[in-house]
């Protein structure tokens, strides 16, 4: 290192580029100190934004130690980060962010007998439980962010969840930790006996244990007097738990939010999955009655007791009438109660007695509904899971603001706490939802505020102070499961008085230089509650002279609160583990542009477009994002801005203009198909076009579908079929012609209008000018037929998405809006006909085939897919084996066609290929042509369009040869031991 660089590092404002250059010589992992990645790591699932010096994604333990050594040498802060799902701001810092989520994902040493497992901090909670489930075990703490939060984050915050009431929070399930200390020492913790009760091995652990014992002994009186009297506490340092009949450093490291050490791996307690569970929904006409009810419920040893107040009830009624209709008028609160055990009879009996007590003798609940079937249980929990997402989707300048959102009181104080909280909200004329884990009285409250308004910011500070006093007055904790972070650290002195002095001594003992997440838990006075807000008084939208200046798009960008749910569903993010690949990354960068944190010119850079290109327009944000943000739409807009400035990529030009290739391919099908099978020809194609040489492409059909529109409109059912490129030119027999013949056999008159490519690929790449004219022509032709009484059907989900959602936004015309209302999926249409007509169903002949169904992303995004399975199930002889975890196949339209994306595409598809293999089937059904290409190449199985199966059932005729070869292969599917795909709909609390 040069003297100049050394000098720049020791200054108060080190140069990110110089630090990055130096770190790249020291670590094997990614060093991300450019302005885009600094922006991405400046936010998390909280209300704050703090620009770091940069981020390092360590590949292994030596990388962590190297960064730690470097930071210690030059007094640079280090902040550990997992999934970025923390709500209190503890994963934000001005120094080096260490992202453990990508490479630290090993799960080892599963021991059912001892009930233990060893994990690295980047393991996702739901991922761990999928592994343990095969052995009948589980890691019990279950925060609502379990599908995407990491164990490192859970350990750092002492995370809880719905079932903490029975199984304890994370700290109570930690047996030992391997941690890197601030001085570079690595320790493996183990409980040590108190002096006089055993011997200690000299070393770092003994030194820290001795110092900790001295601090606790000296402050014992204030610890006993000022520590929260609650069932749950994630505030401050766990002094009582760390020195309690023994000295256990794991207990104080857990919940320390990365301020005392960096967790490298953990040995955790695991428990058997309960053999029996029973659930009930208790309804109340008064929120305060729930407090008395909880005290009684706890006598029955429940595994979960969850609260939703009347605000949530009303929100659910407004946003989800179907669910809301089941909640009677006058319902002011709901408790979801779960009990578990080894015997179903005993569990049910306990719940019956509890229900009788609540709604009968005590008269607290107006009604208690017990779940008799699994689907009843699912509906009850659906009410709980729907609450936060629905609240997050509400429009308006005042949004639910999480700043007094995690207090914990002893359950006996719950009625007083709820009463006082409602008085506080009424005093300041605020609307807020109250919900959470009532069994532990760990309640969340999200007032509706506008953080851009100075008056509301001042109100936040006033409320936080009054709230702190009320919580502490009841002997409570400011945090039951989310940690102190930037939200609560400024109030710890107000809350715990001289107990904070003990916290400061512990911090100096473990981290005398103060480099580990400084300012968190032990306040350094550098910030207050309303400093460093993502949206604060100084937040302004700045003009960029681009389409991003549209107010509707800016509101959409600002809706993202960074929860991290996209880490669980975004196919690119799941495959790469990169923060830049997440959906929230796109919103974060675009928000930085519209607020002036990044110059508008950055949108014309290759680096910015590379991040936007990681959105493959799968549209899962519409169905899986808790806030239902249109990330694909804003990514398309950003790509278009780049293209207007820098022009189009050659490969994208080829992939977005398939017409000439399709016409040539079908005209010279034998020659074109021979070229597709030739490795040398494919290598030449790759060199010329950038299309992957290894990609196995679908052959061209020499007899494509030809347009035909009756000159005189017939009577009866009339349909216009939009076949798309794949059904019209490539899989003509399996999709296009099969659809036409099936519809005709069902009594429909079928028109095949002249049509151009729907343009979904061009839209995805931001080539919007190339799509508008063809979209206008498609709309004109199809709308004319719709006005003549034709139903417009599609068999390719991406075409349907373009017609229904993209065209109205792209064209902005009344015609495109009207047409969108006349577009229908062919599976739903045919299913409706068959279910309504027993005579038609009776004509279905057996098709002996055992298959699984893959639901394409664009079907899932539009809430479709169930109709396909129901349709296939009507066909005699068809056995549909469900895919336990149905993932994106990875090809993502034309994304996986590119040479540069091919390997990643196959990696993205691997989870699906493995899930298909677990079904034991020989055939896969799916409605997407590119999914067919990918699955046939990646899973090595024939893929058939569902329409072809129904076609062959109704009209007879041989299945495609490759499908027929395995169609009759039957047998028992492997036992399914895993739960369905993790629900990504729950908003973090």
Q: Which structural traits does this protein have?
A:
alpha/beta, eight-stranded antiparallel sheet, disordered C terminus, 27 strands, 989 residues
Can you give me a brief rundown of this structure?
The chain is of the alpha/beta class. It is built from 46 helices and 27 strands.
Question: What does it look like?
Answer:
There is one protein chain. By secondary structure, this protein is an alpha/beta fold. The chain is 44% helix and 12% strand. The chain contains 46 helices and 27 strands. The strands form six sheets. Strands 12, 13, 14, 15, 16, 17, 18 and 19 form an eight-stranded antiparallel beta sheet that branches. It has a five-stranded antiparallel beta sheet with strand order 5-6-10-8-9. The protein has a four-stranded mixed beta sheet with strand order 1-2-4-3. Strand 18 and strand 19 (442-449) form a beta hairpin. The longest helix has 20 residues, at 454-473.
Class of secondary structure makeup:
alpha/beta
Poorly predicted runs:
1-11, 970-988
- Enumerate how many helices there are, as a single number: 46
Major sheet characteristics: 8 strands, antiparallel
Number of strands: 27
Q: For the CA atoms, what is the radius of gyration?
A: 30 Å
Distance between the termini: 45 Å
> How large a portion of the residues is in β-strands, by DSSP E?
5-15%
Helix content: 40-55%
Which whole number gives the mean pLDDT?
A: 92
Shape: globular
Topology:
Elements: H1 3-10, H2 16-24, E1 30-32, H3 35-40, E2 54-57, H4 61-73, E3 78-81, E4 96-99, E5 107-111, E6 116-119, H5 125-133, E7 137-138, H6 151-157, H7 164-167, E8 174-180, E9 186-188, H8 204-218, H9 220-226, H10 239-242, H11 249-253, E10 262-269, E11 271-272, E12 276-284, H12 289-297, E13 304-309, H13 310-319, H14 321-324, E14 333-341, H15 344-361, E15 367-370, H16 374-392, E16 399-400, E17 407-408, H17 414-427, E18 432-437, E19 442-449, H18 454-473, H19 485-488, H20 492-496, H21 499-510, H22 551-558, H23 566-569, H24 571-576, H25 583-594, H26 606-613, H27 620-624, H28 631-646, H29 650-655, H30 658-667, H31 669-677, H32 679-689, E20 718-722, H33 724-730, H34 732-745, E21 749-751, H35 760-764, H36 768-787, E22 791-794, H37 797-811, H38 814-820, E23 823-825, H39 826-836, H40 838-842, E24 849-853, H41 857-861, H42 866-874, E25 878-880, H43 902-919, E26 923-925, H44 929-938, E27 943-944, H45 946-955, H46 961-967
Parallel strand pairs: 2-4, 3-4, 20-21, 20-22, 22-23, 24-25, 24-26, 26-27
Antiparallel strand pairs: 1-2, 5-6, 6-10, 7-11, 8-9, 8-10, 12-14, 12-15, 13-14, 13-18, 16-19, 17-19, 18-19
Helix pairs in contact: 8-21, 12-17, 13-16, 17-18, 25-28, 26-28, 30-31, 33-34, 34-45, 36-37, 36-38, 37-38, 39-42
